[in-house]
Fold:
Amino acid sequence: MLVFAPGLSEQGGQEAKEFIEDIGPAGSKIIIDEDNERLTGKHDPIIAKITCNGINLNEILLDGGHCMMYTRYCDRSEFSDESWATECQ
Structure:
C-alpha cells in the first residue's frame, strides 16, 4: 500500500487489524490494484490501493489514524493525486 500500518506486535498493530476486520471480516473479497508506476522487485514493498467491500482501505486507515503515508514513493505513484493521498500532493 502507499500507506503502512504497524505490525501486529507493534503499538497500534492489533487496533489496525481489528479496524480492518470490522470492514472486511475473514473471507471478504478484496481488490489489490498494484501501482503501475511502481511495480515491485523481489525485495521492494508492494505499492497498491486495496479495496474491500467497496471501501478504500488506504483511505480509511489514514482517516482513522491507523497508518501513515509512505511518502517515499509519492513522486512516482499512480495514486499520488487521489484524494486520500493528500500527503503526496
